[in-house]
Cytochrome c oxidase assembly protein cox18, mitochondrial (Lunasporangiospora selenospora), 358 residues
Amino acid sequence: MIRTTGAARVIASRHYARLVSIPTTCHHPVTTPRVAHRWFSVSKGAASSLNSGLILSKKEEDFDHTSSNIWSSPDLIQDIENTTLIPDIVPEPTSINAILAGAHFLLEGIHSAGLPWWATIFSATFLLRTTITAPVAIYQQRAIGRMMTLTPVLQAWLETLKASVRIDHKIKGHDFSTYNSEIQKAYRAKVKELYSAHHCNPRVSFLLPWVQIPLFVAMSLTIRGMAGYPLPFLGDSSLPIEAGFIDGGVLWFTDLTAPDPTWIMPIAIGAANLLNVELNGMMLSKTPTRQQVIFRNVFRVLSISMIPIAHITPTAIGLYWLSSGCYSVAQNLAFRVPRVRQWLKLPALPKKIVGQQS
């Protein structure tokens, strides 16, 4: 559960008292079971259902794919760590209100320094990505690098294991399914042993999305509220527009509350997201697993689908999406430069990836 500071609780409680207290004939406030906010509204029941529905499913993957992609296989990592349930990560509505109030406070603080709103959104994106997600990405790259260095050792040990188990099962007359099951069992045990000895935690491979996605959603909801863009399914009917948003843009998008009629920004958002998908895909092995291929195609579709969505949203939101996407592109490209990796103390890239850069 996300913890909030005393100041954040005060901000959230003020919004709560102002928006959800309903006067009655007895002159006493009666609070409803829905927690409302200027930028966000969610029922407590909906939050509870989200908590109860976040469960990972177990699935055995093809053994050859698993052995060749040991450092990037979510299913093998799940078996190693014996993790079947995602922790309770969905915050309570009051915590969400505090987070959104904090994001709004940050934007107003940057804007008070004299920057126009378009530069404020860009600066806030750069600040948050640099101080929050970039350190997590660097830590993740180092952890993945340690696992990658163990891959040749595991593959060599796997061949020896196959030969040993094959001879043993021929003598005992076991079928192929039993033979394959024994190999997988022994292989997982060896992987767990090596990772433990070298202080490798496979779950770190999935750490960045759990940090980046909540940040992305929180900033999008905050800017959405500041632009006065209501969402009926969240209980919004109308929202006040932040002072200066109507003329706080630049170039062709001077009005940050209006969508971009030229399609320039929506197409740029889709292109940046698609480029990030391809750059991340280049980090995979030559023979990605079926699951990796599916995920990559899903993210390609999502990147393209962002174009029409960005076309109907205020340019203030689109500006945040575009600046965040461009930051990710720059970060992914920087991680592929040998000198940058050396400066950040990241392991050298495999020859396959280095060859793709030339």
